[in-house]
């Protein structure tokens, strides 16, 4: 049975709003025919539309949305094993041979197989049948993608020491908040603010909209202006709008321009002023979160801003907690509006709020095994934001592009790093399972995921698409997209480095006695995949270090990813089969360490990361 699906270049309104597949039939597509619905297509000019015009941008956003759905469907088909059994476009053998002319003669697992057995394996489900029920590809609990999971690998333990499985979670959980934020005193209704004039507040708001707002464009500058004017006219009130304004000022303090690398006192003063705005904001937010019985958009928005504040401070658990509250409130709000029959598909701020909750929760679930709010499974039902406000430039485009790769990263976590379904992860507990790994599974899934990554990259509008490599990028949003690209490229190909690294004793080379066991021959395709992973780790580090110099919502995430990349490079450097094309770790570690030391306050996970990487440079275990 051929499972190839036809998709219209532009779906009709009914299919697009309901996340259905549209075959483009005229006068009505098959879905509208079955549903007896009006089939209306958004007409576009026949000639090429100017790339900067609103119509062209909306069309591009629509195509990105369709791309997300198509990519998920293709991966779902692949994992279910429903593709055509003849060597077609999506069969495992065809996918493999189309992307790489494999040299399988040196692989004991592939070369020893008869043509009949290879054919039979190509028709088997590529994952456990239970994964076929997980068509949404949610980030699984206990996945092994995080930096902490790499610390559990026997080879890594032998090289840098033994660390508990929840090492960084425990550190962050034990890290106290500033006293003024720890269960804020709520005995008075007085909300003191720093004595600042309107021009200073306006400057802080400008900082926010220039440097913070593009990451999570929750509302327009005009909407904020009304709240800001009301606050200055009437003074602070116990309302979510007041909390939003105070969070905006606090975030504007944290990111105020200046050469903070030279003078740490400058950043300390900014942080202290930000705290004076954030303390009363948090009191209002928590009061409405705990004792507010009817959720609202403004409460959710203020919680996301509080999450962003903690993220800029490198506090991942506190950031997650605020976002978790926001997600729960949003789900409650969404259910209430749905029961009331209110259509929110065209409320752009509503969509922006949902995808902000989604992004933050997924980032934290990828790094720390935190509880889930239930927001992630809703992603397949929510449209992407598409309203273009002239004051926001390309913010929505960047936001949608980052949302798309976050969803692809979720599929990577689910397909390659789920403990239930990915054989490569069992090696951390039992290296003897090396011979049981299905290279066919790894090759096929990694090739499909990498194809989807490249498709995502080329779907980004040309005017905001960052160049591949290390060429300078004009703004932080472009830098983040490129960093996400190399993060995904690295983890798609990481299983092959782990596969090779496990083919040797777990003790460091200098401590091995007697003759080492013979190494398995390395198939050419596996070597190529390892080279892609190693190159992606190196390029990731070159791209990310600049972002570690300043406060951003990615500060902790990027620090963890840096350590993960360096640990993967450590594994490959310690492998005789990979060492020759692995770069020297010393210069790369020297790039990262000074940046992490800046944030390494006593008892923080930044401090723990510094100690681990310092031991890596010394070659001595620290735990």
From TrEMBL:
Keyword flag Ion transport: no
InterPro entries attached to this UniProt entry: EcdB-like_regulator (IPR053181), XnlR_reg_dom (IPR007219), Zn2-C6_fun-type_DNA-bd_sf (IPR036864), Zn2Cys6_DnaBD (IPR001138)
CDD domains linked: fungal_TF_MHR, GAL4
Residue runs in coiled coils: none
Keyword Chaperone attributed: no
Lineage top rank: taxon: Eukaryota
SMART domains reported for this sequence: GAL4
Any single biological process term in GO: DNA-templated transcription
GO terms of molecular function: DNA binding; DNA-binding transcription factor activity, RNA polymerase II-specific; zinc ion binding
Positions of the Zn(2)-C6 fungal-type domain: 11-41
UniProt keywords, alphabetically: Metal-binding, Nucleus
UniProt cross-references to PANTHER family, sorted A to Z: ZN(II)2CYS6 TRANSCRIPTION FACTOR (EUROFUNG)-RELATED-RELATED
Name this protein carries in UniProt: Zn(2)-C6 fungal-type domain-containing protein
Lineage: Eukaryota, Fungi, Dikarya, Ascomycota, Pezizomycotina
């Amino acid at each position: 049975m051929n499972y190839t699906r036809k998709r219209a270049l532009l779906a009709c309104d009914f299919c697009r709003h309901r996340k259905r597949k549209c075959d483009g039939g005229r006068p009505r597509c098959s879905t509208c025919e079955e549903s007896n619905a009006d089939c209306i297509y958004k007409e576009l000019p026949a000639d090429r539309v100017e790339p900067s015009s609103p119509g062209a941008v909306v069309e591009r956003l629509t195509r990105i949305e369709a791309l997300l759905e198509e990519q998920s469907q293709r991966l779902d088909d692949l994992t279910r094993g429903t593709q055509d059994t003849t060597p077609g476009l999506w069969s495992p053998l065809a996918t493999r041979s189309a992307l790489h002319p494999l040299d399988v003669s040196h692989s004991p697992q592939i070369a020893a197989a008869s043509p009949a057995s290879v054919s039979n394996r190509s028709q088997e489900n590529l994952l456990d049948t239970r994964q076929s029920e997980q068509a949404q590809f949610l980030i699984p609990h206990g996945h092994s993608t995080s930096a902490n999971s790499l610390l559990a690998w026997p080879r890594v333990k032998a090289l840098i020491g033994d660390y508990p499985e929840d090492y960084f979670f425990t550190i962050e959980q034990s890290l106290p908040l500033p006293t003024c934020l720890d269960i804020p005193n709520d005995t008075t209704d007085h909300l003191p603010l720093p004595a600042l004039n309107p021009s200073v507040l306006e400057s802080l708001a400008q900082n926010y909209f220039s440097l913070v707002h593009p990451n999570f464009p929750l509302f327009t500058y005009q909407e904020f202006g009304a709240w800001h004017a009301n606050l200055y006219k009437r003074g602070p009130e116990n309302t979510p709008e007041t909390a939003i304004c105070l969070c905006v000022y606090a975030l504007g303090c944290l990111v105020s321009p200046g050469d903070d690398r030279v003078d740490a006192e400058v950043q300390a003063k900014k942080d202290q002023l930000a705290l004076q705005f954030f303390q009363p904001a948090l009191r209002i937010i928590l009061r409405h979160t705990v004792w507010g019985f009817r959720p609202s958009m403004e409460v959710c928005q203020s919680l996301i801003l509080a999450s962003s504040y903690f993220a800029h401070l490198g506090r991942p658990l506190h950031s997650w907690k605020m976002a978790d509250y926001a997600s729960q409130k949003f789900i409650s709000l969404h259910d209430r509006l749905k029961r009331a029959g209110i259509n929110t598909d065209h409320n752009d701020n509503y969509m922006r709020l949902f995808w902000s909750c989604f992004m933050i929760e997924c980032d934290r679930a990828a790094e720390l095994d935190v509880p889930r709010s239930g927001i992630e499974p809703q992603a397949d039902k929510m449209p992407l934001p598409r309203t273009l406000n002239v004051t926001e430039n390309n913010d929505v485009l960047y936001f949608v592009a980052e949302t798309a790769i976050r969803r692809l990263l979720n599929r990577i976590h689910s397909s390659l790093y789920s403990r239930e379904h990915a054989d490569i992860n069992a090696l951390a507990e039992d290296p003897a399972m090396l011979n049981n790994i299905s290279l066919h599974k790894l090759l096929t899934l990694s090739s499909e995921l990498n194809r989807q990554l490249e498709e995502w990259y080329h779907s980004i509008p040309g005017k905001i698409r960052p160049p591949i490599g290390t060429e300078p990028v004009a703004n932080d949003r472009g830098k983040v997209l490129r960093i996400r690209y190399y993060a995904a490229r690295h983890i798609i190909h990481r299983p092959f480095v782990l596969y090779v690294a496990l083919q040797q004793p777990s003790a460091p080379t200098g401590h091995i006695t007697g003759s080492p066991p013979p190494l398995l021959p390395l198939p050419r395709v596996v070597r190529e995949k390892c080279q892609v992973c190693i190159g992606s780790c190196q390029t990731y580090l070159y791209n990310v270090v600049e972002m570690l110099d300043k406060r951003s919502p990615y500060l902790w995430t990027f620090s963890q990813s840096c350590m993960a990349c360096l640990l993967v490079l450590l594994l490959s450097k310690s492998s005789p089969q990979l060492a020759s094309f692995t770069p020297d770790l010393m210069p790369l570690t020297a790039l990262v360490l000074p940046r992490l030391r800046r944030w390494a306050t006593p008892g923080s996970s930044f401090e723990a990361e510094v100690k681990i990487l310092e031991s890596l440079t010394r070659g001595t275990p620290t735990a």
